[in-house]
Hints:
By secondary structure, the chain is an alpha/beta fold. It has helices at 17-20, 33-43, 57-64, 85-91, 93-96, 115-124, 177-183, 194-203, 223-234; strands at residues 2-7, 27-28, 31-32, 48-53, 73-78, 101-105, 108-110, 128-134, 142-147, 150-156, 165-173, 208-212, 217-219, 240-241, 244-245, 250-252, 255-257, 262-264, 267-269, 272-274, 279-281, 284-285, 289-291, 296-298, 301-303, 306-307, 312-314, 319-321, 324-325, 330-332.
Amino acid sequence: xxxxxxxxxxxxxxxxxxxxxxxxxxxxxxxxxxxxxxxxxxxxxxxxxxxxxxxxxxxxxxxxxxxxxxxxxxxxxxxxxxxxxxxxxxxxxxxxxxxxxxxxxxxxxxxxxxxxxxxxxxxxxxxxxxxxxxxxxxxxxxxxxxxxxxxxxxxxxxxxxxxxxxxxxxxxxxxxxxxxxxxxxxxxxxxxxxxxxxxxxxxxxxxxxxxxxxxxxxxxxxxxxxxxxxxxxxxxxxxxxxxxxxxxxxxxxxxxxxxxxxxxxxxxxxxxxxxxxxxxxxxxxxxxxxxxxxxxxxxxxxxxxxxxxxxxxxxxxxxxxxxxxxxxxxxxxxxxxxxxxxxxxxxxxxxxxx
Length: 354
Ligand code: DAU
C-alpha cells in the first residue's frame, strides 16, 4: 500500500501565519502537524509516500526531505493551484499507479493513528474506506448520511447537514477512485471534491465502508482548532527536563524543557512544553502552552497558547491567552510618550486589546 499526503492548499483561515509558512508546518506541541501524519503512516507499515505540494513546496521539502528520517521514501507531486482534493488524487495517479492507498490530509491530526484502520481496509478490501466522526458543526465538513452501517449519501459542507457525521481527513482507496475523480465536475467553490468522487463510487454500486472513530480528531485549519489540537496533544505529555531550572522557579505538573533553555524565577504549570535555547524569566507559563525554540519570555504571563521560534515577549502587564504568536515576533511594553498602542501588524492579523 502507498500513502498520499495533501500538503498544498492556501491556508487562508490561518493568515497571517500562512503568509510566510505552510499551515501543515505550524507546530502542535512543538512538532509540525505534518510530522504526525508521517509518523502515523509509517507506524501503519507504509513507506512509499507521495506528498502533494503547492506554493509552499520549498518549505515542506526542506522539513520532510527524502523521508529517510521516518524510514520512508517520499515523492513530491506539484499541484499548480489548489483545485481540490480529488484534483490532487488525479495528478497523483502516475505515482499511485494500481496500488491501493491511504490519503491523509496534511492538516489533520488523529489520536489513535491509522494502523488499525489500514489493517481493516486490507482485510475487508472495499473500494474505499472512509472515517467519520460526530461533530458539533457538521456544516464545516463533508457530511455522511448512513442507513445502518451503509453510507448512502455524502455532501460537502451542506447548508442543512443530514447528520452530525463529518468526514475525517483520512481516506482509503483502490484504483477505482481514478475513473471517479475524472468523472466529477467542480463544486460551487470551484474545487474537485473528494466527497463527490466517493459519492460517485456509491452511485456506481462500488463498496464504500465507513468507520466512526471514537478517539479525538482535529482538522487544524482554524486558530481555535489549532489551540485545541495543541491542548489534546499536550494532555499526553511526559515530564522531561533538559534545560536549567533555577531554585526560585517552580514546575507543576507535566513539563518538558529542551536543552539550552533557562527557567529563572518563573512558574510553569503543565502540561506545557518549552523548546531549546529559550529564556523564561520572572514569568508564568500556564497549562496547554507550547513555546518553540529560542523564545524569550520576560516578566510576562501566557496560557493556552502557541509561540513559534525566535519570538520575544517582554513585560506584558496582562496575561496572554488563546493566542498563536508567529516566528520572530516582538510583543513588548513601551513606556515612551505619548502613551499609545504602537503596532506593526501583517495583513490579516488579529489583535484584541484590553
Ligand atoms: O478535515 C476534514 C475535511 O477536509 C473534510 O470533512 C472535507 O470533506 C474535505 O473537503 C476537507 O475540507 P477542508 O475545507 O478542510 O479542506 P482544505 O481545503 O483545508 O484542505 C485539506 C488539506 O488538503 C490541506 O492540508 C490542504 C490540502 N489541499 C487542499 C486542496 C483544496 C491540497 O493539497 N490541494 C488542494 O487542492
